[in-house]
Specification:
There is one protein chain. This protein is mostly helical and 87 residues long. It is built from four helices and two strands; from the N terminus they run αβαβαα. The protein has a two-stranded parallel sheet. α2 links the parallel β1 and β2. 17% of the residues are buried.
């Protein structure tokens, strides 16, 4: 991920635009403790890019509003509530 993030960040900055990383949400049951969020945060700091903390928002919603159906039945894709939260 780092190699391609660097490549695209350099291209984005060279065009005069500002890079923003879209942090993904965790796959249901696989990611614990914010590992993905930490990776994106580190990448954003390293490359001077903003990070949209979607994964952090999903984790918080899962704790504070467990009744929400964030995931589609496959546990990977977003369900309707997950789409709204992500937006």
């Amino acid at each position: 991920m780092r190699e391609h993030a660097r490549l695209f960040t350099d291209l984005i900055k060279a065009s005069g635009a500002r890079p923003i990383f879209f942090e993904t949400w965790p796959i249901r049951g696989l990611e614990k403790g914010g590992v993905v969020s930490a990776a994106y945060s580190g990448l954003g700091m390293e490359m001077g890019a903003q990070v949209v903390p979607v994964g952090a928002a999903w984790r918080l919603a899962g704790v504070s509003r467990p009744e929400l159906q964030l995931y589609a039945p496959d546990g990977v894709h977003a369900g309707l509530s997950g789409v709204y939260l992500t937006a």
